[in-house]
């Protein structure tokens, strides 16, 4: 494969770069270019993919993430989780249309889209995953990426067993990802 050849990978146009020293010693292809950011403001995520070149299992991950669009959104933009709930207003649920309001700070699964119907006690999980870049909790920089919680740390003191899943794009900031289920182990 030439250094600048392009390929379509999981619906994302990416351009492959020369294999790094790290990649040459493994069975992995070079990392692809970074995807578009999941958000235009308010903090989002971008990812890069690589392909296993072996018919056997490759050690390590085939995807890595970094933060992007880390600028404040204009005040009239509204809340990202609320926008996702509102997008379901034109879908009937139990035979009726509802105005959906976001449920925040869900300790059981903060990366699921849970919404409540305005004016009733109806609480529904409208999607198993919120969109990448959605904050896990209202007063936190932690965000959901691919249904997982990513913890943001401003120093190098916090590690999870799943830290290799993420690579951070901000100086002096670390992003660690882990599956919610493993947090309680």
Automatic annotation (TrEMBL):
- The name of this protein is Uncharacterized protein
Name the Pfam families for this protein: TSP_1 (PF00090)
Annotated keywords: Secreted
Q: Which GO terms describe its cellular component?
A: extracellular matrix; extracellular region
> Where is it localised?
Secreted
PROSITE patterns xrefs: TSP1
Q: Which residue ranges does UniProt annotate as crossing the membrane?
A: none
InterPro entries to which the protein is assigned, alphabetical: ADAMTS_ADAMTS-like, TSP1_rpt, TSP1_rpt_sf
């Amino acid at each position: 494969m030439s250094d600048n050849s392009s390929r379509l990978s999981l619906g994302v146009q990416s351009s492959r770069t020369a294999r790094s020293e790290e990649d040459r010693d493994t069975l992995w292809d070079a990392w692809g270019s970074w995807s578009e950011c999941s958000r235009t403001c308010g903090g989002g995520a971008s990812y890069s993919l690589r392909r296993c070149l072996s018919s056997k299992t490759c050690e390590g991950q085939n995807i890595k993430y970094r933060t992007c669009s880390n600028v404040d959104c204009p005040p009239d933009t509204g809340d990202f989780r609320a926008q996702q709930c509102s997008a379901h207003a034109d879908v009937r649920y139990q035979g009726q249309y509802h105005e959906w309001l976001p449920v925040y700070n869900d300790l059981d699964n903060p990366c699921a889209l849970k919404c409540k119907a305005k004016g009733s006690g109806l609480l529904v999980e409208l999607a198993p995953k919120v969109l990448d870049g959605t904050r896990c909790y209202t007063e936190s920089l932690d965000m959901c990426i691919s249904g997982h919680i990513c913890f943001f740390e401003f120093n190098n003191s916090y590690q999870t067993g799943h830290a290799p899943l993420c690579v951070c794009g901000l100086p002096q900031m670390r992003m660690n990802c882990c599956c919610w289920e493993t947090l309680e182990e």
